[in-house]
Amino acid sequence: MRTLTHQPALFLLACYLSTQLAHAGDAVILVSGGPGLYDAQSPACDSRWDPYIIAPLERAALQPPKVGVTPPHYFFWLVFKPAYEARWKADQAGDTVRKSHVAAVKAAGHDSYVDLIEHHAKERRWNLIWVYSAKEFWQALDRIQVAVDEFYYWGHANGDLWLTIEHEADPATKQTRAKSPPDAYVIERRDVLHHKQLKRLFTGQSPQPNVFYGDHTDAFALQWANHMRVPSCGFNCDVDFSKVEANGGEVLLQSANNGQRGELVEFQPNKLPSRTPQIPWSLPNR
Asked: Which of 234, 233, 238 is nearest to 258 (CA)?
């Protein structure tokens, strides 16, 4: 296990999202979890509907693809559809802020959040795969038959990956607090062991560390690294998605549970030598 401090170069080193395929047959998998319902008290994620959509789009836009290098079937974008359907329905009936989110999407010529996501995928020639549960997440991966160089998750998490989130009132603070969604919407880290046959995917010629963007994803990344046999990164702290659009898809780190500075942690699979990743590109000046 290695710890990567939150410096721009090292951060991008582990979180680099390539939009080019250096070798035919190697794929990029992007997984976007869904938002909860609108919560003004949660500016880090649920005050807007689209942080887990914007993050991969912005990250990819930092390095435009070369013409003819990216066949559409090599980019698999798994998105948890029920959350975006529920958020659209709730926002339509919500207050002025929520209705403004709906109005912005309609002004851009789209009928819903789902319609806009489909537009993004078509525009980039990404293969969009809607998933409706944790079970379907595993099934979608099992259907992929090409080697994977890169894998990324953006979404809610807390040890396990939450495909959406619920909120409840905290009697002590009178504020809302995060609540785990139903089990069907949780990708549990213990389930990685039961799907370790998927390690066949991670045999690309130049695999990058798999990265899980979400709160306290380090435990999941450890399981993923050991059973999928691929270097993996997770956070030992809460992360803030509120600035992903301005920061090229980059999240902000908050303090870890022990009060220390939050970090991105990289895990090497068992029995594989530790390696020093190369920095493929630098964040452009802003």
From this structure: 238
pTM given for the model: 0.82
For the ranges 194-203, 239-248, 273-282, the lowest mean pLDDT is seen at 273-282
The secondary structure of 217-255 as a DSSP string is -HHHHHHHHHHHTS-EEEESEEEE-TTTTTTTTPPEEEE
Residue 260: how many other CB atoms lie within 10 Å:
10
C-alpha distances in Å from residue 252, one per residue of 17, 89, 114, 140, 227: 17, 29, 26, 30, 28
Which tens digit of pLDDT belongs to each residue from 156-176?
Answer: 999 999 999 987 877 877 777
Q: What tokens appear for 217 in the block?
A: 């994803």
The rounded distance, in Å, linking the Cα atoms of 130 and 73 is: 15
**Among 98-102, 138-142, 258-262, where is mean pLDDT lowest?**
258-262
Whole-number Cα distances in Å, 93 to 37, 58, 98, 249: 12, 29, 8, 29
